[in-house]
Amino acid sequence: MLVAQISDIHARPDLSSLQTLERAIGWLRTFRPDALVVTGDLVDDGWRRGYRLVAESLRSLDCPVHLLPGNGDDLQLMRSELAAVGTWINATGPMHFRTAVDGLTLFGVDVTVAGQSYGDVLPHLPWLMNALADVTTPSLLFMHQPPLRIGIEVLDRVGCRNGSALLSTLDAVNRPPLAILCGHVHRPAFGRLGSIPVQTCGSLCPPNPLLLEGRADLPVIDAPSFLVHEVSDGGLVSHVVSVLASDGSA
């Protein structure tokens, strides 16, 4: 079972990240994953045409596509312009999703907070606990912001709050997810929430610099990237796939 994940397109009128998206989608059309999950921040500044262009790219894939909003998205525009691409469990309110694909369950939790840049998983834990209660297959949990400290202060200030409450919820279910898979950070990062792996997907816009512990703001040498997750025999292996940026750099 192969699940691709892209995140943080941040489409804007200069079209640069949309060109990178097209390269990623072209690769995925040939690779043919079983599903694609997009973990938020599709468009900058509520650019309606940007949502339409993203939808057009995603509709060219021959696999189910599932979408979460990020803290930079306009939820109303995203819901209306991508209605033909993704489906959510509610017609209004949080844009959670739950789907089963070939013996694997995918959960998406919308942790966005209206009018704020940070996320908060706490209001959604009752839904998540109920959704996980009857799961008998391996599962993956997708969110926009990661529910743990990344170590980059500017990102941690707008991360997902109440990660400890999420851990308590996941510890209480019979079959917790294989991993928590997020976006927001604009670079791959790997950690744990308790015993559960947490991974962040690279971005299709320029990656963020690695601003750790006061180190210098060095030029970014990372390429835009996304993830491919392979679930087999109840285990998970994730692969980073780099994409040429719009200027041709790797």
UniProtKB/TrEMBL annotation:
Q: What is this protein called?
A: 3',5'-cyclic AMP phosphodiesterase CpdA
Task: Give the matching InterPro entries.
Answer: Calcineurin-like_PHP, CNP_phosphodiesterase-III, Metallo-depent_PP-like
Which residues, by range, are in coiled-coil regions?
none
Output the Pfam families linked to this UniProt entry.
Metallophos (PF00149)
Q: Does the keyword Iron apply?
A: yes
Q: Which Gene3D superfamilies match?
A: 3.60.21.10
Per the record, the similarity remark reads: Belongs to the cyclic nucleotide phosphodiesterase class-III family.
Presence of the UniProt keyword Calcium in the record: no
Domain Calcineurin-like phosphoesterase residue range list: 1-188
Question: Upper lineage ranks?
Answer: Bacteria, Pseudomonadati, Pseudomonadota, Alphaproteobacteria, Hyphomicrobiales
- SUPFAM superfamilies per the record? Metallo-dependent phosphatases
